[in-house]
Amino acid sequence: MTEPGLPDVPCQEFVELVTEYLDGALTNDIVARIDAHLGECPGCRRVLAQWGEVIRVTGRLTETEVDHLDPDTRSELMTAFRRRQSS
C-alpha cells in the first residue's frame, strides 16, 4: 500500500520512467511515488536492478569493444537504444 495521499505508480509507468529515475531527472513528487511503489513491488525492483546492471556493464565498454560486438548483439542494442530515443 502506498503512503496516504500518494497515488500509486502503475508498473508500466515505472518501466517507462526507469531511466529518468536512475538519471535523477524526475520531479520529487514522481520520485516519491516511485519509491513508494518500489517498496511494495518486487517485479519493479527486479526491473530497477536489471537496468542498474545494464548501466554498470555498458558503462565499462570501450568504443573498440562496441565495434567488435557480434552483429546480432549490436543490432539488438541499437534497436533498444533507438526505441528508447523515439519514445
| H and E string | HHHHH
The proportion of strand residues reads under 5%
Helix content: over 70%
Number of helices: 5
Radius of gyration: 16 Å
User: What number of domains?
Assistant: 1
For this structure, the quaternary state is single chain
Mean pLDDT over the full residue set: 80
Q: What's the number of extended β-strand segments?
A: 0
> Which segments are poorly predicted (pLDDT under 50) over 5 or more consecutive residues?
none
* Cα separation of the termini: 30 Å
- Derived from helix and strand composition plus strand pairing, the structural class reads mainly alpha
| Largest β sheet strand count, sense and barrel closure | none
Q: Which outline best applies?
A: elongated
Features:
87 residues, 5 helices, 0% strand
Can you tell me about this structure?
By secondary structure, the protein is an all-alpha fold. It has one domain. Helix content is 71%, strand content 0%. The protein is built from 5 helices and no strands. Helix 1 runs parallel beside helix 3. The longest helix has 17 residues. The radius of gyration is 16 Å and the shape is elongated. The mean pLDDT is 80.
How do the helices and strands line up, and which of them pair or pack?
Layout (H helix, E strand, L loop, with lengths): L10 H13 L4 H11 L3 H17 L4 H5 L3 H16 L1
Helix pairs in contact: 1-3
Gist of the model:
The chain has 87 residues and is mainly α.
